[in-house]
């Protein structure tokens, strides 16, 4: 998990690279009220080490987001639904891609409260084996997701991210690119 300052650096770089050219280290300092370029460099190096950013040598403005384009994830009403039945999509960046397919599902009730998931939160569910042993798992009961940490059940995937209905997103791999959009 990123601390608040590292998240602010990442968000600023993300916003700048989406709308303009990557910022210089001095621009990052000015935008975020940092007094020293070494502080900005420390956070940039942290983000590079954690896989959020890539650097092109010692070039000025040589910072870019890792992994290319965001994933477009279908929002489904049931876990047995197919992406073709999705009414909207949400984009997340970056998520591990490999063989993992992702769907998003909105938490309808209070059954996820024990895991800090509120009614209305959007869960990004990775279909398949979780990349870490302590991740929250998703089992399907008649098409409805059931959240568990019990690894003995027949689970279909894992919770990769949670888009809070009223708060900033918590993505277990990174931050979201944008909110759900109608197609």
Percent of sequence in beta strands: 25-35%
| Overall average pLDDT | 75
The CATH level-2 architecture of the largest domain is identified as: Ribbon
Span between N and C termini? 31 Å
The ordered string of helix (H) and strand (E) elements is HHHEEEEEEEEEEE
> How helix-rich are the residues, as a percent range?
10-25%
- The overall strand count is 11
CATH class of the largest domain: Mainly Beta
Secondary structure class reads alpha+beta
Morphology call:
elongated
Low-confidence stretches: 166-183
How many domains, in number, for the residues? Answer: 2
How many helices? The count is 3
Radius of gyration in whole Å, from Cα? 18 Å
Main β-sheet, in a few words?
A: 6 strands, antiparallel
**CATH third-tier fold name of the largest domain:** Umud Fragment, subunit A
Task: Walk me through what this model shows.
This protein is of the alpha+beta class and 183 residues long. The protein has two domains: 4-65, Arc Repressor Mutant, subunit A; 71-182, Umud Fragment, subunit A, CATH 2.10.109. Helices cover 20% and strands 31% of the residues. The protein has three helices and eleven strands. The protein has helices at residues 4-19, 25-32, 37-49, and strands at residues 53-55, 63-65, 71-75, 88-92, 101-106, 122-127, 137-141, 144-148, 155-163, 170-171, 176-182. The strands form three sheets. Strands 5, 6, 7, 8, 9 and 10 form a six-stranded antiparallel sheet that branches. Strands 3-4-11 form a three-stranded antiparallel sheet, with no helix packed on it. The longest helix has 16 residues, at 4-19. The radius of gyration is 18 Å and the shape is elongated. It starts with a helix and ends with a strand. Residues 166-183 have low confidence and may be disordered. GO terms for molecular function: serine-type endopeptidase activity. Residues 7-62 form the LexA repressor DNA-binding domain. One of its GO terms (biological process) is proteolysis. This is SOS-response transcriptional repressors (RecA-mediated autopeptidases).
